[in-house]
Amino acid sequence: MDEDPRANGESNDHSNPSKKPKISSSLSLITQLQIQQEFAHHQDGVARINNGSFGSCPASILAAQRRWQLQFLRQPDSFFFNYLQKSILHSRTIIKNLINAHHVEEVSLVDNATTAAAIVLQHIGWGFAEGQFHKGDAVVMLHCAFQAVKKSIQAYVTRAGGSVIQVELPFPVRSKDQIIAEFQRALVIGKANGRKVRLAIIDHITSMPSLIIPVRELVCICREEGVDQVFVDAAHAVGSVHVDVQEIGADFYVSNLHKWFFCPPSVAFLYCRKSPLSLNLHHPVVSHEYGNGLAVESSWIGTRDYSSQLVVPEVLDFVNRFEGGIDGISKRNHDAVVDMGEMLAKAWGTVLGSPPDMCPSMAMVGLPASLGISSDDDALKIRTHLRDHFQVEVPIHHQAPKDSKVGARNGNNCITAYARISHQVYNKVDDYIKFREAINQLVHDGFTCKVLSQK
Ligand SMILES: Cc1ncc(COP(=O)(O)O)c(C=O)c1O
User: Fold this and answer.
1) Boundaries of each Aminotransferase class V domain copy (predicted)?
2) Closest to 213 in 3D by CA, of 152, 147, 142, 269
3) Which of 51, 204, 370, 385 is least enclosed by beta carbons within 10 angstroms?
4) pTM score > 0.70 for this model?
5) Separation of alpha carbons 83 and 76, rounded Å
């Protein structure tokens, strides 16, 4: 058995992994051909312009993951006693430097953003159960918060006596000031009748419709308005926008690493700013380490496969093979997705759902009104139709224009739906052309969603 963890890409010195992604002298820049080889396991012929939902993992990282799995299986006891904790700490240290956290204790590795939300919301739920919060005290969240997070609020907070205030976000949106104004309005409601806002949940990048939220400004407003704690749901952030948790200033910040940072499914980090309160946070799966701090609790939640957490050093090497490391990747993805979005909007006579600077590595592109997408159900059906008949994988968002407002227009009609396109290193212009032509074909054939409803 190879018990030297360096066989899996560890360096000798774990104390100070590179703070900013750098090209190390032993790594050469990746070529286009190598990128293709890294993603050769993607199904042939599919225009996969939906990195946002599940991310993607290169072949070399899958191979590294397999090596970690085998290292465990070869001699589990030795791996458990000698390497597992040390290696998880190494991954946490890399993430700590990547996001500019103060202490490695502030960084826990968990399965995904859903688990992180459960940790934070369970903590708030205990605030109600143990009488620190009063019945009716509020949690403020964006109305387009991720559905799983909304359910978690229902399970942990509403059930314990908390109330929920939703911030309505305008869409299409023309500036971040519109979002800031809506957020301030919601806080006023949250604090009405002497209630306290115990938690604000702010997405860094909303899922649907997808937008970069001015998170730093909103956290500042929360501090000024006396909101107890702030949780940033940044499931899409690392690898897609630059993240500096000290600059953002939230109490809790979660990002998946399997969406835009090339880790295998599934791994996320939860940053908890060091404070006396953070000692009360616990992993919902309780194991031997209960009470030893969230990061340590999370690093052993029973026997399971920890390999997706262990490949973080190899992922750092992978992203450093690209010019500018992870920041270079995200900048190029942003530029490309905006170019592709504008190309599609021009072809269809529609618009983007936000200004380019509010697009991460995803963009919302208005779809032709003639497709007749008039409900969430229609949006799901046309998505399935695009997959089954055109081999295009792209999520579709239905957006009913508000009664009193005139929505964005396509010819004489309001745009009622937007496609959320993603760009990742494996994407080609042809993927977006394939999508453009699929929609053009549907429009040309006089297709409307009514046809699908009749099936
Ligand atoms: C904003 C947001 N929060 C939470 C999640 C949940 O992520 P996961 O399924 O990895 O837990 C997602 C997933 O897309 C998301 O977009």
Assistant:
1) 87-277
2) 142
3) 370
4) yes
5) 10
Residue 187 shares a structural domain with residue 242: yes
Q: Are residues 209 and 348 in the same domain?
A: no
Atom of ligand 1 nearest to the CA of 236: 16
Domain that holds residue 444: 325-453
In degrees, rounded to 5, the angle at the alpha carbon of residue 376 between the alpha carbons of residues 370 and 378 is 45
DSSP 128-170: HHTTSS-TT-EEEEETTS-HHHHHHHIIIIITTT-EEEEEPPP
Which of 50, 112, 258, 397 is the pocket-test mutation for ligand 1 (most atoms within 8 Å of CB)? Answer: 112
Q: How far is the CA of 55 from the centre of ligand 1 (A)?
A: 11
Domain total in the chain: 2
Q: Does residue 20 form part of some domain?
A: no
